[in-house]
Design a protein that fits this description.
Thrombin, subunit H, six-stranded antiparallel β-barrel, single chain, alpha+beta, six-stranded antiparallel barrel, 12 strands, 39% helix, 302 residues
């Protein structure tokens, strides 16, 4: 019975074995088959052709991943380089600002030295150390005082023009009233003293940052852009110092005075270095106590 089953199973499985052997033989033949022209095994060519799409996808994915990591590393390197360059730019900008400040300070000090030579008066260089925050007063404090020979009413100037006058003094500091203050004033002339009849006085109280020139006859020719100088008649400022430039003008007439606004030549809003002129106005001769007519009358009575 067992033998019969075995033979029957063999007969049933014989076709399967035959097909299997044929497939295996075909595979062996396919593997061993060669191209007559190139001598390459055809199976290898087929396998390579079948695997080519998968290899392309894998290659692209690997290339994309590699490029991504490469870009990430580049971005990190670029960010570090940008930070380094930014630090260098900040350092160079700081050095440039310092160089500009030093240059500006040298120019201011040079202008003050030239002012001393031109004016012929002794000067005390000083630095502005404080500014009055009140809207009612235009004053600044400087770091020189009576110990340096500074006295009340001495003029304070820069290389560009007048700043104001000293109003209070302590041994090592002083307070300066700017010419833009309402209580400040100075004798002035439009143009050159002795060549112009546009005499008047300047005082604060005009528009913000400007000073007003008063008492200039409407018959005297005056134009916007003309420069204004001190006359020395106020007993504070010597003659010939620069006050500023006319920036606004309402012309007068034979019966009306000019209305003049002047922008000070000194940068009063950016004061740093100034000079105090050791100047005292010359004493005016005292008027005679007796008049000639009175003396004659007394002689007649005798």
């Amino acid at each position: 019975m067992a033998t019969v089953r075995t033979q029957r199973e063999i007969r049933q499985r014989a076709p399967i074995w035959l097909v299997t052997l044929l497939v295996v033989n075909f595979i062996i033949m396919a593997i061993d088959a060669r191209n007559t022209e190139t001598g390459q095994r055809k199976f290898r060519v087929w396998a390579q052709a079948a695997a080519s799409p998968f290899q392309n996808v894998s290659s692209k994915a690997g290339s994309t991943t590699s490029n991504l990591f490469h870009q990430i590393l580049n971005f990190r390197g670029t960010a570090d380089e940008n930070e380094r360059l930014k630090d260098q730019v900040d350092q160079l900008q700081s050095e440039l600002r310092n160089a500009r400040e030093q240059t500006a300070e040298n120019e201011r000090l040079k202008a003050l030295l030239n002012l001393k030579q031109q004016s012929g008066y002794g000067t005390v260089p000083a630095r502005v150390i404080a500014r009055d925050p009140s809207v009612w007063f235009n004053t600044v404090a400087i770091d020189r005082g009576s110990a340096s020979g500074i006295e009340v009413n001495m003029p304070v100037v820069t290389g560009s023009g007048i700043v104001g006058r000293v109003i209070t003094v302590s041994p090592f500091s002083a307070q300066v009233m700017l010419i833009t203050d309402e209580k400040a004033g100075a004798g002035a002339v439009v143009g050159q003293l002795g060549q112009s009849g546009a005499l008047g006085s300047v005082r604060g109280g005009g528009e913000k940052g400007l000073v007003e020139m008063r008492y200039v006859s409407g018959l005297v020719p005056v134009e916007v852009g003309d420069y204004v100088l001190t006359t020395g008649q106020d007993g504070i400022y010597p003659a010939g110092l620069n006050v500023g430039e006319i920036v606004d003008l309402r012309k007068g007439s034979a019966t009306q005075l000019h209305q003049i606004l002047i922008r000070p030549s000194a940068r009063l809003d950016q004061l740093q270095d100034v000079a105090v002129l050791l100047y005292h106005a010359p004493q005016r001769a005292a008027p005679e106590q007796s008049l000639p007519n009175v003396d004659k009358a007394k002689g007649a009575d005798k």
